[in-house]
Design goal:
InterPro entries: Aquaporin-like, Aquaporin_transptr, MIP, MIP_CS. The chain has helices spanning 3-8, 11-34, 45-63, 73-81, 87-111, 114-117, 131-153, 164-179, 189-199, 207-227, 234-242. The chain has 267 residues and is mainly α.
Length: 267
């Protein structure tokens, strides 16, 4: 049986994919909901940062052992760059995350009074910030977040202390505390796409895909090849990407083997 077919036929694989859909739906629902303006005055940036951070921390705690709780196509792409999950799993995760985000935004839209919905917390670039600056900000925001993801999910850190879920939540909150003023703090293409799709407003939307994907890629390469290198050959990395080999699965890759039963090695 082809490795990819083995993974698709595994119940654990589909549980993980559904977990990513469900987690992203919850993340977007609560995050966008906390970002709506219910009164006059400026938006409370601390409230928004805490809402997104606490949502991420909660979901990592609840579903981290099921799928890794990436809840973010950029995070999944970074784990793919680091050859920590198969190409097939990454593709299904990212589709599930985007669909989950849209579902969460749609539910929020239906539950919120028309006068309050506004642009549904759509990510927008500050008028004084250029597209190049906005993209660079998104790169840095996602870079620090994905580095935190990789470090806290790294199974080689036998002496690590503290809560993985809280570390990721704080990292996300940090990004919002800074990025809200520049770009609205996208950091997550699924989060940015959801309100854009519901409100049909895709102005400068590419920034919220290019920036996070580049930032995540840089973080994956920096962590896995410079800061904390994984001693694996090209053949082993390709085998993981193809889903041909069971590996030591970091929480970031969920609990399901890459493809077929066999000797444990790798990650």
């Amino acid at each position: 049986m082809p490795p990819a077919m083995w993974e698709v036929r595994s119940p654990s694989f589909w549980r993980a994919v559904f977990a990513e859909f469900f987690a992203t739906m919850i993340y977007v629902f609560f995050g966008l909901g906390a970002s709506l303006r219910w009164g006059v005055g400026p938006l409370n940036v601390l409230q928004v940062a805490l809402a997104f951070g606490l949502a991420a921390a909660t979901l990592v705690q609840v579903l981290g052992h099921v799928s890794g709780a990436h809840v973010n196509p950029a995070v999944t792409f970074a784990f793919l760059v680091g050859a920590q999950l198969s190409l097939l799993r990454a593709a299904f995760y990212m589709v599930a995350q985007v669909l989950g985000g849209v579902a969460g935004a749609a539910v929020l839209y239906g539950l919120t009074p028309a006068a309050i919905r506004g642009n549904l917390a759509l990510n927008t670039i500050h008028p004084g910030v250029t597209l190049a600056q906005a993209t660079t900000v998104e790169i840095f925001l996602t870079l620090q977040f994905v580095l935190c993801f990789f470090a806290t999910y790294d199974e080689r850190h036998n002496g690590r202390v503290g809560s993985v879920a809280l570390a990721i939540g704080f990292s996300l909150a940090l990004g919002h505390l800074f990025g809200m003023y520049y770009t609205g703090a996208g950091m997550n293409p699924a989060r940015s796409f959801a309100p854009a799709a519901i409100t049909r407003n895709f102005s400068n939307h590419w920034v919220y895909w290019v920036g996070p994907i580049l930032g995540a890629t840089l973080a994956g390469l920096l962590y896995d090849f410079v800061l904390c290198p994984r001693m694996r050959g090209l053949a082993e990395r390709l085998a993981i990407l193809k889903g041909e080999q069971v590996t030591h699965r970091a929480p970031g890759a969920g609990t399901e083997p890459a493809a077929k039963p066999g000797p444990v090695s790798g990650l």
